[in-house]
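DM from R.C. (forwarded with permission)

"hey, sorry to bug you on a friday — could you get me a structure for this? deadline for the figure draft is monday and I only need the backbone to look sensible"
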Amino acid sequence: MKKVITNLGVLFFTTLMIASCGGGDDKGKTDATAVESSSESAEAGKWDKLAQESGLKKEDADKAIEIGTKMSDCYQLESAPGAMDSKMTDACDPFMKEFKDYCVSKFGTDEFSGDSPENKKVSAFREIMFDTRNELAESKKK
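My reply, with the result:
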């Protein structure tokens, strides 16, 4: 009886792991919990490494994607690589406020430069947010 229970436990755990990993399909999948956007820019795992290195939680990365998605409509594409916000219109101000308020409430600061763990979280949040914004703005341009 003990062996049957152990085997059922192993079977359940294996099934759970396969289901949570997408069944081993080699093709990229979209993350079902990511914020939906018209171009579905959030692929599963795209920000995992950055989030892990900086200490962001999944909910933080999702929020950054959400704000970046909102910003894509009030942003003009930059001509210089790496530019972050010089061509955002005033319509983006509420989203920048949302970003700052979120970071202050979650990380204790909205400062992104520095070596503290909090600064690294804000910096990663900004990177996800602005990259999402840029990708969506680029896809709308086409």
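R.C.: lifesaver. The radius of gyration is 19 Å.
me: no worries. Confidence is low (pLDDT under 50) at residues 1-44.
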